[in-house]
Specification:
The complex is a heterodimer of chains A (185) and B (176).
Chain A (H helix, E strand, L loop, with lengths): L1 H19 L1 H38 L2 H13 L10 H12 L7 H12 L10 H10 L8 H9 L9 H22 L2
Chain B lengths: L1 H25 L4 H36 L1 H16 L6 H6 L4 H15 L4 H11 L4 H11 L8 H23 L1
Classes of the chains: A mainly alpha (185), B mainly alpha (176).
């Protein structure tokens, strides 16, 4: 991450300075960071709602039952992280249903659970890498946003992309899982 | 069909809330207290995430405004059209791992320029619907637990994303 991130900044800033000068470079830096604040506020809403709901579920005693049932689903993919199996299942389910930004709190909860067993808290574990790689390969089954976009643009069959999207997503997910299995040894 | 899915995923959270509240009240739990206590547990995570998001969104904006992505697009256009990938798709392919909203804007633009049912727009829709905003997600998820050494996550995500792009273009050409 450090290498990629600094490469982006160094190349970007140098180019900005040479092409448009210091003001443009400063603006890009400041506005970019400001975007993060706005985005955090948006995420905060969804996250607070989710965490509040979890609080109720926990105190009502439903959490343990839910956890046991859900951990069976993805336990096989993540054998070394049984404590996170339930939240991982929920994250994948939320993404498959296309909940988008609303699925983020589930993912954050899964990361917290995965961090519990982490011997080196600043370094990603194999399970974390696998979890994120799978999430980043797009699990959404029906791309509702895109179908709506195509419909609005006047497409004759907006939903024609569904099966092709599934095929492409499946390809990337399979490759992600395979690569992670190899690199986890 | 997609309306049904959209309907269901929209209703899940509200329904869960009703069920949780009802069950909590039945179990004589102070649901208001439980909610606020749970929500408060989320605050440290939000604060922890902010610097990571700031760093990543800053870097992405700098990269986009510098025009380097455009330069990269122009450079790789001849190469990729030789492999059968429309040069108009390049900005989308390059921007997708960096920005979701920017990518959507490109898809919209392609649709209005070439028509919603052109091969380019069809392919763009497929590529968009089978990919994620890799860098933003990595910064967000890892940042929420304070992890800076992400090891093989991003390379694997990028490689599998590339496979997805190739598969997407292939399927698009086959099914158009």
């Amino acid at each position: 991450m450090a290498i990629i991130w600094s490469a982006m900044l160094i190349s970007g800033l140098l180019t900005l300075l040479l092409r448009f000068g210091g003001d443009a470079a400063m603006d890009a830096l400041l506005l970019g960071a400001a975007e993060a604040v706005t985005l955090s506020l948006e995420l905060a809403g969804a996250y607070l709602v989710f965490m509040g709901l979890t609080g109720i579920v926990k105190r009502a005693g439903l959490m343990e039952q839910l956890t046991k049932k859900l951990s069976r689903v993805t336990g096989a993919l993540f054998p070394n992280a049984p404590q996170a199996a339930a939240s991982i299942t929920m994250t994948f389910a939320a993404n498959m249903l296309g909940m988008g930004n609303a699925a983020t709190p589930f993912g954050l909860a899964a990361m917290q659970d995965l961090q519990k067993n982490n011997p080196d808290p600043r370094t990603a574990t194999n399970e974390m890498c696998t979890f994120l790689a799978i999430n980043s390969s797009c699990l959404q089954i029906i791309p509702t946003g895109l179908i709506a976009l195509r419909q609005a643009a006047g497409s004759a069959s907006p939903a024609a992309i569904v099966l092709p999207c599934l095929a492409a997503s499946a390809a990337s997910t399979i490759v992600a899982v395979m690569l992670c299995k190899i690199l986890s040894r | 069909m997609q309306n049904l899915v959209a309907l269901i995923s929209g209703a899940i959270l509200p329904v869960l809330f009703i069920l949780a509240l009802a069950y909590g009240l039945f179990r004589r739990v102070n649901v208001y207290d439980a909610f606020t206590e749970g929500a408060a547990e989320g605050l440290p995570v939000l604060l922890r995430v902010l610097p990571y998001l700031a760093g990543m969104l800053m870097a992405i904006r700098v990269l986009r405004e510098s025009g380097l992505l455009n330069a990269l697009t122009n450079l790789s256009a001849p190469l990729l059209s030789g492999v059968g990938i429309d040069a108009n798709l390049l900005p989308l392919i390059l921007l997708r791992p960096l920005s979701g909203s920017g990518s959507m804007a490109i898809v919209k633009e392609l649709m209005s320029t070439f028509g919603a049912d052109s091969l380019v727009s069809y392919t763009a829709g497929i590529l968009m619907g089978s990919s994620e905003t890799i860098f933003y997600e990595a910064a967000l998820y890892f940042g929420s637990i304070g992890i800076t050494k992400t090891r093989y996550t991003i390379p694997v995500a990028l490689i599998s994303s590339l496979v997805g792009v190739i598969a997407g273009v292939l399927v698009a050409n086959l099914t158009y």
